[in-house]
Every structure is written in structure tokens, then in C-alpha cells.
Amino acid sequence: MRRWLAALVAATTSLVLVSLLVPLALLVRSVAQSEAVDSATRAAESVAVAVGTVDEETLRLTAEQASASSGHPVTVFLADGRVLGAAAARTAAVDLAARGRSLSAAAPGGREILVAVEGAPGGTAVVRAFLSDDDLMRGVRQTWLALLILGVALVGVGILVADRLARAVVRPTTALAEVSHRLATGDLTARATPLGPPEVRTAGLALNHLAGRISDLLAEEREIVADVSHRLRTPLTGLRLEAESLSDPGEAARIEARVDALERAVTAVINDVRRRSRERASCDAVPVVRDRVAFWSVLAEDQSRAVGLDLAPGPLPVAVSAEDLAACVDALLGNVFAHTPDGASFRVRLTAGDAGPDGVGGEGVGGEGGPVVLTVSDAGPGFGPGDPLRRGESGAGSTGLGLDIARRVAQESGGFLALGESDLGGAEVRLVLGIA
Fold first, then answer.
1. Which domains, ranges and CATH numbers included, belong to the chain?
2. d(CA 85, CA 337)
């Protein structure tokens, strides 16, 4: 905007100055030429007065004195052909003036002023004063240069003033953009300071109002989700009591473990939605993944599923909290059990320093030592039609939120999520996590 305003002011100022300075420059030249002609005419007339009243020698001295005083060569052409004063050739204009008509005419290198003197001995005499081109343009070029410098200076001042005015508008606008970017990144405390023109101040106040409204809506949403999550504790308590009343101790312990896991998930949801901002957390991925695979292995054994677990030697610190990583693993393994038939095997691999077979990721994702990659493969039917990563749409009759949870966990750690085909014949989900 600053460049645009500066260019606009420069163009406008230039047009105005051209429309003023060009006629002024022409007027200066015309005045200078007029003054030079008047000076030469006076010199010629002063000599013409002496023609016929003084002798020839006195007339010659008068012409030479007029030439010296005026700076213009003065020549007297007598009727008998003699020439007195400055040497000059007889031109057609001199012959025309000898007929009794005073005039001025262009001559090679300048202009000649001719004054006819009638009644001189032998006929009409002609007094000639010569003006060179330098005489006609004396002082004009200097004046033009001064006008040019003045015009350039005025354009520069105009651009400087426009730049200052534009800066007064651009700075508040840039500040508004910075505040909007901070809000977009989740900093809901960002507020704009109303500055600049009234329109920009109004936009700043509107942005502050919008930010406050967003904060209120998010706080309200957090409380609603927290209340809904809290209500789940009542049926969980009932399930726990039912599990304790089972006659089979082994079955009771298994059900209680499931209830404990569900209660931990509900507690994590409550804590998560009540947090004003998410602090950067970290954990060792190896024990978390091992624990969650062990949890799901019990159900896999009931469904005759072969489970493969390949864990790199730890520790493998990742920029994700243990609760979020556990929820992510549960979401991915839950999808395997929900969308593959009983008996379909699956495998979980946790590696370090390699983003996967396609080479995406690599060293530097989330840290200096390379990412940590969690790969879940299955022998199921693979991904259905549509976009599996689109939130709320799975193409398989589910809510479509499992992969979205995993993707958000990966992105918050500085990594990403990728989908592909498994060497087991089904789907493969590769979760690249940034290291802590």
C-alpha cells in the first residue's frame, strides 16, 4: 500500500507540475527573448538618432560605443553602400529595411534588429544590431534548471508526505493482521490496539469483539463437553458395581480393567476440555505403545487375531503426552477391531529416525534427531471409498473420528499422518511424531 500511495502521489504531483512548469518555462524564454530584443532595439535607435546629424567618423565612434555598452554588435549601412561600425554582410533583410521599414529578422546564428533612418544623405540608411542565440537564451537555461530542481523537490516532498501518511495507515493494518494470525494459531488472548484512521480503529475494535466472542464460545463448549463427560461417570460406576458382582473372578477382573480404561479416557476428556491452552508435553513412546498393545491383545486373543509387536529399543521421547499417545493408539487399534473381520491379524511397529518407506519426514521433523514413527498394519479389507482422513466421514459406517484424533496428535507434535496399503494385505496407518 505504501508503494501504491507513493506512486499515486508521484504521478499526480508530476502531472500538476508539468501543467504548471512547462508553460512557465516557455514564458521565461519568451520574456528573455523580449528583453534581449528591447536591449538591441534601444542600442540601434541610439545610433539611428546620430545618422545624418554628425560626420562619418563621429557616427562610426557612436556605433562602436553602442556596441560596447549594449553588448550587441551595431552596424550602420549608409545609402551609398558604405558600412560603419561592426563588420556585417548586407542581407536581404537589410535591403528590405532600406526601403524605409524597420523590422527584425532571423539570421544565421541569431537575430538581427534593423532600424530604417529616412532623410539621411543619399537616401535611407539602416542601423543593424545583431543578437546571437546565446543573447536570446541568456539566463533561460539556468532558470529551466532551477524549475526542474524545484519540480523534482516538490515530487520528493509529496512522496515523503504520502509515505508518512501511508505508514500511519499501514502500521495499524499490519498490527491487525498480526493479531488475526495469533488468533488463528490459538492465542485467544491476542487483542488489537485501536490506532490509525477511524476506519482502521473500527476494524480493530470489531476484531477484539470477535476474539472475545470466540473465547466465550470456546469456554462454553468446553464446559458443555466437560459436563457431558462428567455425566458418564454415573453409568461407569454402575458398570463397576456389576463387574464386582460377577461370580467368575477372572471375568470380573477383565471387566473392571475395561471399566478402568474407560474411566481414564473420560477423565482425560474432562481435563483436556477444561484446559485453557495445551502445554507442550512429552513422554516415552515405548512403554505407552507396549501397554496399549498388551491391553488390546486380550481382545485379539478372544477373536483369534495374530498380533505383531515390533518396538525399537527405548527410550523414544516424543512431543506428545502419555494420555494423548495412549488415546491415539487406542483409536487406531479400535479401528482395526471395528473394521476388520474376526481372525484378521494386525501388527504395530515403533521405530526411530525413519518416516516410512516413502521417505516423507526424515531428520528434523519435530527435533534434531529425526521423528518417531508408529505404524499400524492389518490384514483387513483396507480403506473404503472416499477420504478416510476427512473428519466425520469414514466410508465404513463409523463416525470417522479415530483417524482424525491420530492426525491431530501427530500435527500437534510437529509430525503428520499418512495412509497406505499394508504388506499384510489391508490398511496401514503411519503416524510420524516429532521428538521431544
1. 2-138 (3.30.450.20), 142-230 (no CATH), 279-433 (3.30.565.10)
2. 124
